[in-house]
Amino acid sequence: MSQIIKTKAFVLSKLDFGDTSKIANFYTEDLGRISGIIKGARSPKSKIGKTVDLLNYVDLVLYKKEGRDIQIITQADLIEYYPNIKSDLEKLKYASAVIELLLRLTVENDQHRRLFIGVEKILQRMEDETTQPILLFSMFIKFFLEEIGYGLETDKCSLCQKSLLNSGNVSYNHEHGLMCKSCSENHLVLFEFSMELFNKMVCLSQRNSKCSYKENELIEIITFFERVLIYHIDEFQGIKSLKIY
């Protein structure tokens, strides 16, 4: 069965196809991640070819057919192109990391509206605010892990069930998750948080948080979340965007 669908989308990637067309990857509000062909997009006169550019937020119209891997994109209207992000190397670095996570770690044709809204909000904050981009990305990657099923229980020790707050250093391994100082003495430790750093990691999810962060603390938190993803997802070797810029 075929149908015409209109949906909002973020452009994740694009590449030339044939003499006149392009194939692009999108993260959409209603369909999740999809691939689509844009016929004639390489023509200098093509409006849609210019609109479908990396990181742009667009209104898509597509001709969707069940069982077809690449859908046909018939229209794209620009919602936001994030000029402040694209003109600021630091903002672009972390916005690109958001896009990379969607492209590499989301499931094709799997709608996830809460994740879509989260992407919409974090990119708009990067565009509009003076908040450190690395802090906004730290908030996003924690949210992203939770939304794709790899969130961590931060309230209590995974082994003894005692509260982790104010329990001394907090340790982690892939088998057990987060452990209190006492339980970790008898298990392999892959990552150890000071109590201060652990509380700051938890603070990333809290609205109106008054936590303050040093850049090296945020780098350490992001590195931790990367390790969790690398362990759980085959072939994922880390976030390339953070190393390129």
UniProtKB/TrEMBL annotation:
Transmembrane annotation, as ranges: none
Keywords, ordered alphabetically: DNA damage, DNA recombination, DNA repair
Gene Ontology cellular-component terms listed: bacterial nucleoid
One biological process term in Gene Ontology: double-strand break repair
SUPFAM superfamilies noted in UniProt: ArfGap/RecO-like zinc finger (SSF57863), Nucleic acid-binding proteins (SSF50249)
Domain DNA replication/recombination mediator RecO N-terminal residues, every copy: 1-82
rRNA processing listed as a keyword: no
Tagged with keyword DNA damage: yes
Protein family (similarity comment): Belongs to the RecO family.
Name of the featured protein: DNA repair protein RecO
Protein source organism: hydrothermal vent metagenome
Source organism phylogeny: unclassified sequences, metagenomes, ecological metagenomes
